[in-house]
Amino acid sequence: MIIKPIYEILPSLYLAAGSSSVIWIDSTLGVAGGVLLFCLGSLIWVMRSNFRRLDQADHAGKRFNIPESLYEFMPFLFIGLALSLASTQQSIAAYAIAALCLYRGCSLLYMRHRYRRHTWQKVPSAVKTSN
Q1: Residues 108, 79: contact at Cβ < 8 Å?
Q2: pLDDT-based confidence at 127, cuts 50/70/90?
Q3: What spatial distance separates the first Cα and last Cα of the chain, rounded to whole Å?
Q4: Do residues 102 and 78 make contact, with C-beta atoms less than 8 angstroms apart?
Q5: Which residues fall within 8 angstroms of residue 85, CB to CB, at 6 or more apart?
Q6: For the segment 14-57, what is each residue's pLDDT rounded down to a tens digit?
Q7: What distance in Å separates the CA atoms of residue 43 and residue 51, rounded to the nearest whole number?
Q8: pTM score of the predicted model
Q9: Nearest C-alpha neighbor of 76 from the set 11, 29, 6
Q10: How far is 24 from 48, CA to CA, in rounded Å?
């Protein structure tokens, strides 16, 4: 069994290792391994988030609905697109688009972290009122 501090950061380590492999390794096999690590890290991240989630997904206020699986992986798709653009293209426009995609992916992850309630977060106690 892996100790909890290491277990909790494994998806982030997979994402970081996959990202660095995609950017810095020139061989096709290294890039394929990096993509695999990145995909596994995002899959584990989403599975843990859904398992620990306490609130229910509410889609009533949405203008349009996309499939739940695509919605859950949207931040990682943006980050992956940014990594692939930054590693394959050599123009300023590609770097600008990659920076925008990276910003959007990270902001989506931040918003999900902020607005979802998970089992490890403290639930605020209800305020009692007496009549």
Answers
A1: no
A2: very low
A3: 52
A4: yes
A5: 94, 95, 97, 98, 101
A6: 999 999 999 998 899 999 999 999 999 999 998 888 887 776 66
A7: 12
A8: 0.77
A9: 11
A10: 29
The Cα–Cα gap between 111 and 107 comes to 6
118 pairs with which residues across the strands?
53
Residue 78 near residue 105, CB atoms below 8 Å: yes
Enter the tokens of residue 69.
Answer: 């699986």
The dihedral formed by the CA atoms of 74, 50, 65 and 111, expressed in degrees to the nearest 10: -60
Instruction: Give the number of C-alpha atoms closer than 13 A to the C-alpha of residue 36, restricted to the C-beta side.
Output: 6
User: Which residues touch 55 (CB under 8 Å, ≥6 apart)?
Assistant: 116, 117
Cα 86 from Cα 100, distance rounded (Å): 11
Helix ranges, the chain (H): 4-24, 28-52, 68-88, 92-115
CA distance 6 to 68: 29
